[in-house]
Specification:
401 residues; alpha/beta; Rossmann fold; de novo design (two linked rop proteins); 42% helix; 12% strand; disordered C terminus
Length: 401
């Protein structure tokens, strides 16, 4: 099996793997949360929720037990950067989880590992055993009155389990389906106890920030998107792989880095992201412009945008848990509409109705899967209207709004 490797030197390689944990255990919990808040660290899974805020909510929740969960269910198409982090910087991830345990008052951490990453489990268990031997996990960590351990649980191969409440349902042995919110996991999570769920890259960033300080982190990126970000770049480019960038980089500059300057479009954020046409390559990758969990798919000029749309909608139709009607039926209708377009049998009027359906799905679906699954469809139709309208049975204009 070919494994992905970083194409640029990663900052994680310059971090002392034990320093962040040592410094954190010498601090009180409020000061750790203050440091993370000052760093402006946002979750690296794509949603971008402030880490300091999430941890504080779990820390103050009234409970005799709390949990730390690392979401390593990297299921977004085109994303493979967490795999690199686990292969090369697992100690930083586990250190970040341990810091979280100390901060929120938890004794138990769970790494929810993607089912397709089974081959990594033995290696990760070896790292965990060494940390126990070195006094970095288990009882009285580093001589402190603090006990915390981590176990690995395997995912079941469902895309929807990347959503934190569906992940928790899976951990509890149930079918992976999103829960109604509120209550949120920071109040009522795993086994009904306060739980924080962050992804692999986020925990590695936490350990790095506690080692080097918030001021070091905020010097990178932008004011609203601090720090660096790992991107999984694939598709029609000369140098696919994992790249580290500072938030705020333009798509144009990223394409120069990966050898994809002649791209027709770039899909940012995986299948659930948006398709950016060449005319908008001056836009930046950041929470204030185009956020992403890490997937960047370069689309060459010879690609058929309908085929790309069809591929994405087939994926979402298959991966929908079927719990709510907008997602269950909407993804099917969008896929059928694309097939009519490919056959030249879809009228422009019906295409407008499909666009309206996609917007309803974004508003009415229960979880992030259904809310984001129409994104590529809507953005491709809007940004490539000439190409799409050329495939309709009758041509009328589509609103640019």
């Amino acid at each position: 099996m070919n494994q992905p490797h970083a194409k640029t030197k990663l900052t994680f390689s310059e971090i002392d793997i034990h320093d962040g944990l040592k410094k954190a255990l010498a601090m009180n919990r409020a000061d750790i949360i203050a440091e993370l808040t000052a760093s402006k660290l946002k979750g690296r899974g794509g949603a971008g929720f402030p880490v300091g805020t999430k941890w504080n909510l779990a820390a103050v929740a009234q409970s005799d037990e709390r949990f730390v969960v690392c979401n390593a269910d990297e299921g977004e198409p085109g994303t493979f950067k967490d795999r690199v982090i686990l292969q090369e910087f697992a100690d930083l991830v586990f250190a970040g989880m341990t810091i979280a345990g100390w901060t929120i008052g938890s004794q138990k951490g769970i790494l929810y590992l993607r089912g397709e990453y089974t081959y990594l489990r033995k290696y990760l268990e070896t790292i965990l055993n060494k940390r126990r031997h070195d006094g970095l996990l288990g009882n009285n960590i580093l001589g402190k009155n603090f006990s915390f351990d981590i176990e690995i649980r395997m995912g079941s191969g469902a895309y929807v389990c990347g959503e934190e409440t569906a992940l928790i349902e899976s951990l509890e042995g149930y079918r992976g389906e999103p829960r109604n919110r509120p209550p949120f996991p920071v109040d009522t999570g795993f086994t009904g106890k306060p739980t924080i769920v962050n992804n692999v890259e986020t925990f590695a960033c936490v350990a790095s920030i506690m080692s080097n300080g918030a001021a070091w982190f905020t010097k990178l990126g932008t004011d609203k998107s601090s720090g660096f970000k790992l991107l999984s770049v694939s598709g029609d480019c000369k140098e696919p792989g994992v790249y580290e960038i500072n938030f705020g980089i333009t798509i144009k500059d990223l394409l120069k880095l990966v050898g994809g300057e002649d791209a027709k479009a770039v899909q940012i954020g995986g299948a659930s992201g948006i398709c950016v046409p060449a005319r908008d390559f001056s836009r930046s990758i950041s929470f204030e412009d185009i956020p992403t969990g890490g997937s960047v798919i370069v689309i060459g000029r010879t690609r058929d945008m309908l085929e790309i749309m069809h591929n994405f909608m087939e994926f979402f139709e298959e991966e929908s848990c079927g719990q709510c009607t907008p997602c269950r039926e909407g993804n099917k209708k969008l896929r059928e509409g694309i097939e009519l377009l490919m056959q030249g049998k879809c009228s422009a009027e019906y295409l407008n109705e499909l666009m309206n359906l996609g917007e309803v799905m974004q508003l009415a679906s229960k979880c992030g899967l259904g809310q984001s699954s129409p994104n590529a469809f809507i953005s491709i139709v809007k940004n490539f209207r000439d190409e799409i309208l050329g495939r309709t049975a009758r041509t009328v204009s589509i609103s640019k709004e």
